Amino acid sequence: MMKALIQLFIFSTLIFGCKSKSEKTNEIPHVVATTGMLYDAVINIAGDKVTAEAIMGPGVDPHLYKATQGDLAKFNKADLIVYNGILLEGKMSDILKKLGKQKSVVAAAESVPVEMLKSAIGYKDAYDPHIWFDVRRWKYAVKAISHALIKLDSANQSFYEENTSRYFSKLDSLDQFVKERLSEIPENQRILITAHDAFVYFGDAYGMQVEGLQGISTVADFGLKDIAEIIDLIIENEIKAIFVETSVSEKSINAVVTGCNEKGHEVKIGGYLYSDAMGEFGTEEGTYIGMFKSNVETIVNALK
């Protein structure tokens, strides 16, 4: 199926990709982002100077997502494609790299200095792609998107630069908010347990121990040994709550809750966290800042 989709894309490029510059002169740039987080960065920087859309919506797991014919058509029409990179979009990575030889494409997360990236446990020579859960690292991705937009549409350079600076101020305020709220959790309770390791950068940046049943990708399997180890950790540290992710099955976390109860330790589901996808577009949680704040409030309220 993937081979057929790639062939379809190549064919559509030949048929529809020859639009002349003169035909596009009066059109504002069209930007396609893979995830909601990237889409949100684009619209914060570009505003109404571009049209933008996201390939993956709320609740979509980018690790498992496969490009559809409709997605390939969107990529083909885009003036700029923004994706995370570092293998987050596992099933689409090859397509996105090939597109980079034909049009403007930016892998935003790959702008983070390599010394700031965390190795992906269980994956040789790979890094953890979930950089958006540390505001400081995410700012590198935002800056890369800003540079790509300026390169695409230099006539509006000052507009993009001003919006980027303004957005950075909001991100700095978010970073401070996160630190202040998490400080309310007793130090011995700053252990975040979720279905998969999407929060490693979050833990590194904000002083929390993070444990996930699966690795950095939801493609990874988990077994009885993984569940038993998490249960022992919860009981040993008297952890009050663990968390479900909006884009990942609850099955693994429910198994942990059951196991703890069977051993006489009551642990609750602390709530739902946004991990690889944000909330519904048009809601507060459908923005990067709103999603991040929602996660922090959920964590603090459950663990403090």
Shape category: globular
At the fold tier of CATH, the topology name of the largest domain is Rossmann fold
- CATH homologous superfamily title of the largest domain: Nitrogenase molybdenum iron protein domain
Low-confidence stretches: 10-25, 215-222
Q: Give the structural class.
A: alpha/beta
The helix/strand series, from N terminus to C terminus, equals: HHEHEHEHEHHEHEHEHEH
Q: Number of helical segments?
A: 11
Radius of gyration: 20 Å
What's the CATH class of the largest domain, please? Alpha Beta
Supply the CATH architecture of the largest domain. 3-Layer(aba) Sandwich
The percentage of residues in β strands lies in: 5-15%
Tell how many strands the DSSP assignment holds: 8
Q: Can you give the mean pLDDT?
A: 88
Helix content: 40-55%
With strands numbered from the N-terminus, the spatial order across the biggest sheet is 2-1-3-4
Descriptive report:
With 304 residues, the protein is α/β, with parallel strands linked by helices. The chain has two domains: 2-174, Rossmann fold; 180-303, Nitrogenase molybdenum iron protein domain (Rossmann fold), CATH 3.40.50.1980. 46% of the residues lie in helices and 13% in strands. It has eleven helices and eight strands. A four-stranded parallel sheet has the order 2-1-3-4, sandwiched between helices. Helix 5 links the parallel strand 3 and strand 4 (104-107). Residues 10-25 and 215-222 have low confidence and may be disordered.
